[in-house]
Amino acid sequence: MTATPTPADGRALSQDPGPATTPRGYGSGLTLAAFGVYFALFTPVMVAMAFKIQHIDPEGAVGSLGLVLGVGAAFALVANPLAGRLSDRSTARFGKRRPFIVGGSLVGTLAMAVIGVTESVPMVLVAWCLAQAAYNGALAAIIATLHDQVAPARRGRYSALIGIGTPLAILGASVLANLVAADLWRFLLPGLVATVASIVFAVVLDDVVRTVPPVEPFRVKEFFGSFVFDPRTHRDFGWTWLTKFFVMFGYAGIATYIPYYLTDTFGLAEAEATEVILAANMASTVAMLVSSPLGGWLSDKLGKRRPFVTAAGLVMVLGLLLLALAPSVAMVVVAQGVVGFGAGSFLSVDQALATQVLPNAEDAAKDLGVLNIANALPQSLAPAMAPSIIAVGTAVGIGGYTAWFLFGAFVAFFGAVLVYRIKGVR
């Protein structure tokens, strides 16, 4: 099956109708796998890494955290599309996706164990880069199964299952950080959960087995082609990438500094901060559990994606504004709930939209991996930009973290309205 070009407007949307039916057990397995891998990724990003770095390097924690998370996210954005391309080409007898799902989780968990025991920032950096690459390789294969197993008309509700896994993972990260003080278990336990969840999904997955090897060998051209596309030819795909990037900058990139926001601005101790983060993420999770399936179901029902993406992005902007101007810890919790409500709908509907603008059905995992760069890149750029923006905010008297969250709201707003540049999906 190949994509059908539409030269009149320069787009080339995939016309692959997908399978007629979705295998039994796929939905529950998808939810479990998404939860497991996101749990392993979000626990360090949202909570554990900030305190781990603070334990090792208390004086330079802000800069060291930015370095570790920024470089690690760069590895993620390379690994995701590369693993996607390799899984598209795989002729393994166990299926195209299974080896990457299980193998990536196993390697990532070993790296997490290293982070837990080391007392060196450089070693944390190396291990986190490996963990990001491994888990994002697994994630690329997990998300690609959505294209393999589900028809386009039902992808909104199945994308919502991935969206449900996200808030549950964030909540689990907060619960773990609140209950477990030891660095080793803050990193190793999420890794073990990811491994078990991935193995279960691999067992229940009715994976596609490619019986015909790719015509072309995997060369340097194909390697670099894993990370690029021609936005002039595939305009909708390009606008989808930009929409995801800007909104995810406001969501994932900004949240990294909430632990320091609570300790520096409100004077909370680490234990108090983890309690507030737990409450905030509980509010966010409840909101996402409502909005994710609701947004996915409504977008399928009405046959529209763009209005839901815009509305979700604007709700996230509102939450970021509340976070920036929060007069109290209670308002931080409320703000995270508002952000979560918008993020839940965005993550489900945007993922469904993405599967409808792929340039070529044969390269589904690779192209979805390119789109996932838009998830990972903000996590690389945001920590690199944060110290400067926080410093400027402090210098002009509005507050460093206030300036940071306001900047995130502006970027997310731009992404929310940019979705209407996509013409091939309503």
TrEMBL record:
Pfam families: MFS_1. The chain crosses the membrane at residues 32-54, 60-79, 100-118, 124-146, 158-181, 187-205, 241-262, 277-299, 311-339, 401-420. It is found in: Cell membrane. Residues 29-426 form the Major facilitator superfamily (MFS) profile domain. Gene3D superfamilies: MFS general substrate transporter like domains. Keywords: Membrane, Transmembrane, Transmembrane helix. Residues 1-20 are annotated as: Disordered. It is a multi-pass membrane protein. InterPro entries: MFS, MFS_dom, MFS_trans_sf. Its main location: membrane. This is MFS transporter. It comes from Isoptericola haloaureus.
